[in-house]
Amino acid sequence: MVLASGAFALLIGAVFVLLVFAIREQRDSAKRAIRAQEAISAGNKLEKLAIDLETGVRGYVASGARPVFLQPYTEARQAYPAQGRALASLVRDNPIASDTVGGIRGSIDDYVNLYSIPMISLARDRIDVARSVIVNGTGPQRIDAIRSQFQQLFNSERALANKRTSQASSRANVAIWIGIGGLVFGLSAVLVLAIYLSRAVVKPVREVAAGAERVAHGDLSARAPDQRSDELGDLGRAFNTMATSLEHSRDEVAARTAELERSNAELDQFAAVTSHDLKEPLQTVTVFAGLLDRDYRDRLDDSGKTFLDSILAGTDRMRTLIRDLLEYSRVGHGELQPELVPADELLDRARDNLAAAIAEKGACLTSDPLPTVNGDPKQLFQVFQNLLSNALKFSDDDAPQVHVGASLFPGEWRFSVRDNGIGIDPRHAERIFQPFARLGAAKEGTGIGLAICQKIVEHHGGRIWVEGRQGAGSVFHFTIPDPGATEEHQPNTAPAGVGA
Ligand code: ADP
Fold it and tell me: What is the position in ligand 1's atom list of the atom closest to the CA of 440?
């Protein structure tokens, strides 16, 4: 491409030089033609002066040597040497014309010195003799000879002027044709260059851009042409290397995700199967422990009764654990079937379910206006219920204050459940979301509630986390992607409290 641009610039330069040369030639020819015309005009003036010399002498003699009649002669005699020099300078580049002009000047000098001066002086002394000499003398012949020399000069200068004029015009034509040729050539070269650029540069760049767009839209199989050995080839190769590496990374991520999903599914399956299988022996133990309690309690001593109570409590706990484990392995599976759910309704249902606990604790439950979200109503209800239940469960004994809030962030709704309970040491803020994780103070529960909440929220594309301090209450936050934040999904503007 650099080579093509260089050749193009060189050709344009050559055309330009030719054009300048042709224009200079034309200008020189025109100048020479003008000088020939000027030489003719100067010759005419000199010829007139020569004639003035002759008519002046004649007039002087004819008037009987009256000085006033000599004036044309005197003026012409003063002027002709300078006019002769001017003429000589105009024809100096033409040797033949220079010779002719030299001859003319010599003849005029001869006429003046050898004829007119003696004639004037004769007229002053002997007018009658002068009169007869002027009739028969050589003056007119001399002047005729001078005029014929002029004629010769004029003819040659005219021929020269014509020749130079036609030379100038033909060079002007050459300049015009070179100009037109250069213009046509320049335009065609620009056109050829534009076509070349469009094929050789714009097209491959467009192909890379189209490839980049396909990659941006997720089609990592897009490739750019990379056969060229220039910078565009480098660009294409770099793009292809990038796309290939992206494709590998995506395949690796997909393989790892599939592997993770498979092992998760296996784990869930394992948990479901084991919990299910455990139910039956547990049921047997529960039934026989119940029979033992009903039919043989009276016959047992105190230690036997304590052992039996432990067996009954253990089976109860085992049943709860198995139920929670099954619940945990069930949630967050399969395609989500979302629908628009007003979060206010979910909160109301959770509050109804927990009415006994709220009343028992004398809790005060308030909330912001809550938005409508897109999600599985059953699962989202469970999140509200678990978080509210924990807020009541882990409260101080004084009337618990629980507040549910919601704020819109870019692309998501952020809900919060704030309590003034026992709080959480920030060091355990992540651990409590693991299945069966319970902190020291917790006496009730299996430690599965928050793990279930996390599974549900993440299944909806959100996040869940806790902020809190030991003894200073805690705030559980979770996000749900915004269904579009249209008017109808916005919360009411007036804050509403939900009292218990
Ligand atoms: P469970 O299902 O047994 O209630 P969770 O998974 O819900 O268990 O909670 C795990 C642990 O997190 C609880 O045992 C408790 O120690 C702590 N926790 C949960 N919610 C709160 C809260 N609102 N305030 C203080 N601690 C909490």
Answer: 16
